[in-house]
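Researcher: Good morning. I'm working through a list of sequences from a screen, and I'd like to move beyond sequence-only analysis. For each chain I'm collecting a predicted structure so we can compare shapes side by side. This is the next one on the list. No need for commentary yet; just the structure.
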Amino acid sequence: MSDDSTTTVSGIFTTREDADRAVEHLVQEFGINRSDVFLEPAGDANSSGAVASGGDAESDPKEGSLFPPKLGAQVKVTADVARSQVSRAQRAFAEAGAESIGAG
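Model: Good morning. C-alpha cells for this chain:
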C-alpha cells in the first residue's frame, strides 16, 4: 500500500517569472492541483522578485514609465503534494530555476 499522506515542497526563486514557471510545471505537467500551490515573498519585501526579468523590467522613461519595478525579496513557491509526488515537485522547481529546494 502506498503512502498518500501529503508533504510540503518549497522552492525559492530570484524572479517572479521563474516562480510562475514552476507553478505552471507543477499544475500542467505534473498534475498537482492549483489550489495546493502557493506563492509568497521569501522575506518581508515585495514578492516581484529580487531581479528584473521580462515584464517586471523598467520601461524606457522616454516611453512614459516613470516608476522602476518594485523588486525586493525572492519569491517562495510551496506545494502540498502526496509523498509519491515529492520528487516530481522538486524536479519542477529545479527545471524552473529554484535557488533552493526543500521538503518536509
